[in-house]
Design a protein that fits this description.
By secondary structure, this protein is α/β, with parallel strands linked by helices. The chain is built from ten helices and eleven strands. Helix 1 crosses helix 3 and helix 2 packs across helix 3. The longest helix has 29 residues. InterPro entries: LysR-type_TF_proteobact-type, LysR_HTH_N, LysR_subst-bd, WH-like_DNA-bd_sf, WH_DNA-bd_sf.
Length: 308
């Protein structure tokens, strides 16, 4: 076998495993395709090729999506372990390389914050500070700020105090109810009780329960799709699957484009002591690259509204 043929085969297997893992985690070809920035058909084809090679079905069709078969679930767990080892090795390599370059930084944050708030602004950082090279580690896993595989800084959701870190407040954590303007019933909701029969999109923060408690409807029953990440909840809302309750900084870009709109004539926000904070292992040293990035992040926040 030629070297080029071997490389193509390795790349093909890699793509199939990526498609398989994303489908198993998200429960549908469509959601996996959205995450991987490919077509739904491409993901389905990768999975079909895997099934043909292995001689077995990997997924069971459900009324609302796909679920790995028992043997495939064990396989996907092992695939994730292998991917985690590769990802960890990459982080160690990047961290080792950055130790000799004070202008090369790794910033960890959630996928939702990275794509919805940070990514649209990064070009301005490059324009204003071309010497700084920043790698965004977008994951819902909390990365260490000290020790092996540590990152230089992070943007985290929470409330102070943050133990063993230096934290700077960045954005408020107020959540608002948003939906697609095409969602059936939009425009007719005036009070919280009006949406009890509307699909309500949830993520791991379980904000709807706290929202109904805050507005005098404790124990209210509601239903709708649930996702493991705020980013997916926002995608679902944009596709008209229901109303999502999302931190306002993450929803603002879609509100500006018109992909989303506030669900109520009155705001009905969910207030919280939590927010987004920039955290570092140690107090920031003036004139350092980290100090430059933190100052830039704060400059991207409008002092009047908390958003920009």
């Amino acid at each position: 076998m030629k070297v080029t043929d071997a490389r193509r085969m390795t790349q093909a297997v890699h793509n199939q495993l990526i498609a398989f893992e994303a489908t198993a985690r998200l429960g549908s070809f469509r959601s996996a395709a959205d995450e991987l920035f490919v077509t739904q058909g491409a993901v389905a084809q990768q999975v079909r090729v895997m099934e043909e090679k292995l001689g077995m079905k990997l997924f069971t069709r459900l009324p609302r999506g796909l679920a790995p078969t028992p043997v495939a679930q064990d396989y996907v767990n092992r695939v994730r372990l292998a991917m985690g080892i590769i990802e960890e090795a990459t982080r160690v390599l990047l961290h080792t390389g950055s130790e000799n370059d004070p202008y090369r930084l790794t910033l960890s944050t959630t996928a939702a914050f990275a794509s919805r708030w940070l990514l649209p602004r990064l070009a301005r950082l490059t324009e204003q500070h071309p010497r700084i090279s920043i790698m965004i580690d977008a994951t819902d896993v909390t990365r260490p700020l000290k020790g092996p595989s540590s990152v230089d800084m992070a943007i985290r959701w929470g409330a102070p105090p943050f133990l063993d870190t230096a934290a700077r407040f960045l954005l408020p954590g107020r959540s608002i109810a948003v939906c697609s303007p095409t969602l059936s019933g939009y425009g007719g909701w005036q009070r919280p009780r009006d949406v009890l029969n509307v699909p309500l999109i949830s993520d791991t923060h379980n904000n709807w329960t706290r929202w109904f408690d805050a507005y005098g409807l404790p124990g209210a029953r509601f239903s709708g799709p649930s996702f493991s990440q705020a980013n997916l909840a926002l995608d679902a809302a944009e596709q008209g699957m229901g109303i999502a309750l999302i931190p306002e900084p993450l929803a603002t870009p879609s509100l500006k484009t018109g992909a989303l709109t506030r669900a109520f004539a009155g705001a009905y926000p969910l207030e919280t002591e939590h927010g987004f904070y920039v955290v570092t292992a140690e107090p920031i040293t003036p004139d350092s690259a980290i100090s430059t990035v933190v100052t830039w992040l704060l400059s991207e926040v409008d002092a009047r509204t908390g958003l920009k």
